[in-house]
Design goal:
By secondary structure, the chain is an alpha/beta fold. It is built from 13 helices and 19 strands. Strands 6, 7, 8, 9, 10, 13, 14, 15 and 17 form a nine-stranded mixed sheet that branches. It has a five-stranded mixed sheet with strand order 2-3-1-4-5, sandwiched between helices. A three-stranded mixed sheet has the order 11-12-16, covered by helices on one side. A hairpin with a 5-residue loop joins strand 2 and strand 3. The protein binds ligand BES and zinc ion (2 copies).
Length: 455
């Protein structure tokens, strides 16, 4: 089984995790080999120690120093592709959070997006370290892999229809209920902005709705499912359009998180909403200066058809709010401004609840899923008020673009609310995080949920 630990009864090779300069913690015969080889325990180094007959006696992975380890994550897991193919067992004493990171990193290091190429050969496997919840780590890895596959699949094979299929498959796997509102049915069902954004595509827009669980607080996740973002009539230049298959990264990430929540059987009721559309161009495309009336009744002046995410999310958030959840969380590849602010590695998030914000930040640090709080800065509310309508979807100037987008979304939610403006993409390969689609914020949220919802 992919992304799972090796059967604990299989014979496993001892794997030592060695800090820089600590090769004296290796068995004596291995220390000599380490010296011969120049293995010092530097971060990312690996060492395979043979017996006289050429079989594997033990192995080691360099763990560097605490200071250097802060520069990244999943350094132990990276050994999965560097060591000879075998089954390993970590024998060094690591604190539990580091063991969990090592174990998850190992599973995720084995991920490659191979839908369109011949799959690579086998990689080394790991017996689940003692003292961690192996099942939990496997479910988290599976959720993350789902997110990555959905983002990496190009828009030709991941349009609104295929996203619906993936949504249904996930729901089916967890006996969740699904409701879908498709195409022109969005108008009588009162999702005018989802329809307006998606109607110019030959691939019909839709609203995907999943419900799971029968008791506990209601958590509603809303994910931006723009399967491709051309920018619409305000068409993006080629350089900005190049990555826009990932504009359903919010949907992919909430689906990954939903898999984790349902797979672990958290004691809550879950609803997942995904407005799935393609922001395309055709004679019936919505235009700059159009004024749309949203599901909530607020009118929105379109000042840029490329600010489409907040439009489809607004209608979905209005629906989310209608059954008064304990918490609404939206995740979206919403603004370039969020990237300028914090770069590709962190998930900026917004909430009015200081306690919840610190729970998320602490949880994020525990599970190596970095986040950073940005403010719902009220003085900027005026920037999203155009005068000619209730709201402006794209304030001119672009100052505080991530904040004004978040303020726009907040106008549609009265329940407790948290919003993540994620990138969904890893631009440079790193341990356990190959270049390409990547989940951001989901693991931090999973870790924080017991506190956020008092489970
Ligand atoms: N999907 C983009 C945002 C985006 C771009 C995310 C690049 C990640 C990487 C979104 O729909 C968009 O185009 N937003 C505009 C809004 C602006 C027109 C107000 C942006 O951020 O430039
Ligand atoms: Zn856009
Ligand atoms: Zn977009």
């Amino acid at each position: 089984m992919p992304f799972t630990f090796a059967d604990p009864t299989t014979p496993a090779v001892d794997l030592y995790v060695i800090e820089t300069g600590s090769i004296d913690t290796l068995p004596e015969f291995a220390q000599k080999w380490a010296q011969t080889y120049g293995f010092t325990g530097a971060l990312g180094q690996v060492l395979a120690v043979p017996r006289e007959d050429g079989t594997l006696a033990c192995a080691a992975v360099g763990y560097g120093t605490a200071l250097l380890r802060k520069r990244g994550r999943f350094f132990v897991g990276a050994a999965a592709r560097k060591l000879p193919v075998a089954t390993y067992r970590i024998v060094s004493d690591l604190p539990r959070p580091e063991l969990e990171e090592a174990a998850l990193g190992w599973l995720l290091e084995t991920y490659r997006f191979d839908r369109y190429v011949k799959p690579a050969g086998a990689v080394a496997s790991l017996v689940a370290p003692k003292g961690i919840d192996a099942k939990r780590i496997e479910v988290i890895a599976a959720g993350e892999v789902l997110t990555r596959d959905l983002i990496n699949t190009p828009a030709s094979d991941m349009g609104p229809f295929e996203l619906e299929e993936a949504f249904r498959a996930l729901a089916h796997a967890h006996q969740a209920e699904v409701n879908v509102i498709l195409g022109d049915d969005l108008l009588p069902a009162n999702f005018p902005m989802i329809h307006a954004v998606g109607r110019a595509s030959t691939r019909e827009p839709r609203l995907l709705d999943m419900r799971w669980g029968i008791k506990g607080p209601l958590l509603t996740l809303v994910g931006k499912g723009v399967c491709f973002d051309t920018g619409g009539l305000n068409i993006k230049p080629g350089s900005s359009m190049g990555l826009m298959k990932k504009d359903m990264g919010g949907a992919a990430t909430v689906l990954g998180l939903a898999h984790m929540i349902m797979g672990l059987g958290l004691p809550l009721r879950l609803r997942v909403l995904v407005p799935a559309v393609e922001n395309g161009i055709d004679g019936n495309a919505f235009r700059p200066q159009d004024i749309l009336k949203s599901r909530k009744g607020l009118t929105v002046e379109i000042n840029n058809t490329d600010a489409e995410g907040r439009l489809v999310l607004a209608d979905a958030l209005t629906l989310a709010d209608e059954d008064q959840p304990a918490l609404v969380i939206s995740m979206a590849t919403l603004t370039g401004a969020a990237r300028v602010a914090v770069g590709p590695d962190m998930s900026p998030f917004f909430t009015d609840d200081d306690v919840a914000a610190s729970e998320v930040s602490l949880a994020a640090a525990r599970v190596a899923d970095p986040v950073w709080r940005l403010p719902f800065h009220e003085p900027y509310e005026a920037m999203i008020e155009p005068g000619i309508a209730d709201l402006d979807n794209a304030p001119s100037g672009g100052f505080a673009g991530a904040i004004t987008a978040a303020l726009f979304l907040r106008r549609f939610v009265e329940s407790p609310y948290m919003h993540f403006d994620i990138y969904g993409w890893n631009p440079t390969a790193a341990p356990a995080r190959p270049k390409g689609g990547v989940g951001m914020g989901a693991r931090a949220l999973l870790e924080a949920l017991p506190k956020l919802l008092k489970l």
